[in-house]
Automatic annotation (TrEMBL):
It comes from Nitrosomonas nitrosa. InterPro entries: TM_pro_TauE-like (IPR002781), TSUP/Inactive_protease-like (IPR051598). Keywords: Cell membrane, Membrane, Transmembrane, Transmembrane helix. The chain crosses the membrane at residues 12-38, 44-64, 71-92, 98-117, 191-212, 218-239, 251-271. GO terms for cellular component: plasma membrane. Belongs to the 4-toluene sulfonate uptake permease (TSUP) (TC 2.A.102) family. This is Probable membrane transporter protein. It is a multi-pass membrane protein. It is found in: Cell membrane; Membrane.
Amino acid sequence: MEIYLIEVLLGLVTGFILALTGAGGTIIAVPLLMFSLHLTVAEAAPIGLLAVGLSSAIGALLAFKQKRVRYRAASLIAVTGALTAPVGIWVAQQLPNAPLTLLFASVLMYVAVHMFLQSLHENEKDARILAAPPCRLDDISGRLIWTFPCFRALALAGTSAGFLSGLLGVGGGFVIVPTLSKATNLTMQSILATSLAIVALISMTGVISAIAMGALNWSIAIPFCVATIVGMLIGRVFADRFAGPRLRQGFAILVGCVALIMVTKVIWTAIF
């Protein structure tokens, strides 16, 4: 019963953070599971991936109803990501926990630094103008003009996001959002909505692969994921009150501290 309550509490915290900070908030799920339930990265990653997939699917569905999702771009990235997500899961099952933990900590630190720097300029207008991005919107139809450079940029983003999604149990939004920002002239609302749809599709592909490999612990996954969704719905009520660059900076600092703790723990275990 005590373990069950911990799983539910972790899910509520993850969902609440997700609602306040966006899809990137789910990156904290795997470290929480590792620290609280003493799971390895390979054990926690599929559980985090399921939580990422379900929560992103809800957000993507809402965005789709608002016609913000670029479904053709999302389909291309998701298909390429679906091909590499199972590979990432297989690699995670083969690697020792220590190097996998260090890799995860590196990703956390990257996300923390990127989010912190981004929050510093959140209220400033971006003066940079991307003259000719690979993927451009047609002025008449409003649809993306498909070219080989466009296809290549989106396919590479999907490949990277899919592999990291399976390997570490993260959604890959930290790869997809910057890529869409640089490779297209879509609005940020459309980029975030499309990213949610991609993350949901890639994550669920990874989850199916994890189930097939017997790598998903359902006794932990079910209460954790249900609680994550509940926490997300509760957090949405308060999201507007706490939104802003200060919140994102605080979350970035939290993520950075978690990364340092993970590295310290690996080094401590190796020495002692």
